[in-house]
């Protein structure tokens, strides 16, 4: 199954799905969400607007990747290896490599 998830997490669309799962993970715990909002400067008043920005989902995964214990907790919760989450982040940061000519 790990081989399958490597394929799943290597496209921008699947990276966005991982980021949404990560945001849900953060929101499930008040302290985690509060820290995320504090670090990013986001809040209830501008979260939806931020989510419309193409870079938002990469920044969510970047936030997780910058905090190893948090990354490990999310990866375990989501059933992914931490490397797979980082692969999803890379897919979001470099979507052009997935574009067809």
Describe the structure.
The chain has helices spanning 2-8, 12-27, 30-40, 47-51, 56-65, 68-78, 82-93. It has 101 residues and is mainly alpha-helical. Residues 1-7 have low confidence and may be disordered. The protein is globular. The chain has one domain (2-94). α2 (12-27) packs across α5. It has seven helices and no strands. 71% of the residues lie in helices and 0% in strands.
Mind telling me the C-alpha Rg?
A: 13 Å
Strand content: under 5%
> What's the structural domain tally?
1
Please state the overall shape, judged from the principal axes of the Cα atoms. globular
**H/E element sequence:** HHHHHHH
- What structural category do the secondary elements indicate? mainly alpha
Q: Would you identify the regions where 5 or more consecutive residues have pLDDT less than 50?
A: 1-7
Give the proportion of residues in helices: over 70%
Count of helices?
7
Biggest beta sheet summary? none
Distance between the termini: 30 Å
> What is the count of β-strands?
0
> Based on the structure, what is the oligomeric state of the protein chains?
single chain
Mean of pLDDT = 86
